[in-house]
Predict the 3D structure of the following.
Amino acid sequence: MRLEEARDHIDDGVVYLSGTDRAEDGVITSVNDRYVFVRYRGWGGSKATSPEDLTLLARTSPTETGEE
């Protein structure tokens, strides 16, 4: 994921993969010039996460964005 893409998906679900066998899911809460802040299940607040370690859980359908 890129920072620009993350900015367009605040409040959407993501999966965090850090190179281990364990994936974590969370919700994007904000983005700054370097990190995506994600609220992970079981954490009280958001954690700074590198955008390249995140994948959207679901993308907006082409009909909703006007793309074909």
